[in-house]
Amino acid sequence: RHNPVTYNDSPSPGANFELDTFASVQRIIHVTNVKILGADYLYDILIPLVDTEFSLGPISDSHSFTLGDITLEPFVLGWHLPRWDVTFGLGVVMPTGHYEGDEPASPGLGYWSGLMTLGATYYFDEQKSWSASVLTRTLVNTEQDESNITPGSEFVAEYAIGKEFRPNNWMIRPGITG
Q1: What is the pTM of this model?
Q2: Which residues have C-beta within 8 Å of that of residue 154, sequence separation ≥ 6?
Q3: Residue 68: CB partners within 8 Å, gap ≥ 6?
Q4: How far apart are CA 70 and CA 81, in angstroms?
Q5: CA–CA distance from 127 to each of 8, 39, 116, 173 (Å)?
Q6: In this structure, are residues 55 and 61 in contact, taking their beta carbons and an 8 Å threshold?
Q7: 129 has which bridge partners?
Q8: Tell me: the pLDDT tens digits for 98-124?
Q9: Which of 8, 80, 116, 130 satisfies CB 3.0 to 4.6 Å to 124 for a cystine?
Q10: DSSP reduced 3-state for 169
């Protein structure tokens, strides 16, 4: 469980902010034997279970461990080259989590999103023990049912650099991510 974020330096009494969130995301991946354009074809699903507590002054909301919005990627291609791994995928984020506009701790967002994933990993040595990765996700959101507002598109970028060690048949991969 994550420690709550608390901000209470406000000059206004009762304006304390607290957020405590825990998520466990189950990802099921199936890599098929099918090759498309020289890439491995795979598909996956992400099923988030979320627990959130939120308070901002007099506003307080809590949702116990419950289902969030499920992501389905039915089309993913992965290329594996001597020094590169590259991934491209198309999917959808489904509004399966509970959403209420007046509940800030809602585990769902209340709208559908189209999803495109593009990522690459470069290996600095032949043993692939040093690597640097970038993964991007572009989301195009639909109208939120309750508010009739269409949130703007989103672009998310993740990165990592790491070194793999294999002491005594263990695989250890420390690194920096963001």
Answers
A1: 0.81
A2: 113, 137, 138, 139, 141
A3: 23, 48, 49, 50, 96, 97, 107, 108
A4: 31
A5: 50, 21, 30, 13
A6: yes
A7: none
A8: 988 888 888 899 999 999 999 999 999
A9: 130
A10: helix
More confident residue, 14 or 173: 173
Map residue 151 onto helix, strand or coil: coil
The DSSP element (H or E) to which 140 belongs, if any, is: strand 130-141
Q: How many residues does the chain have?
A: 178
As a 3-state breakdown, the chain gives helix, strand, coil percent values, each rounded to 5, of 0, 60, 35
Q: What is the mean pLDDT of residues 139-148?
A: 92
| Cα-Cα-Cα-Cα dihedral sign, residues 4, 147, 74, 162 | negative
Percent pLDDT > 90 in the chain is: 71
Place of tokens 């990765």: 133
How far apart CA 104 and CA 66 sit, in angstroms, is 15
Residue-wise pLDDT for 76-99, tens only, equals: 999 999 999 999 999 999 999 998
Secondary element (H or E) of residue 73: strand 70-80
Q: What is the DSSP letter of 153?
A: P
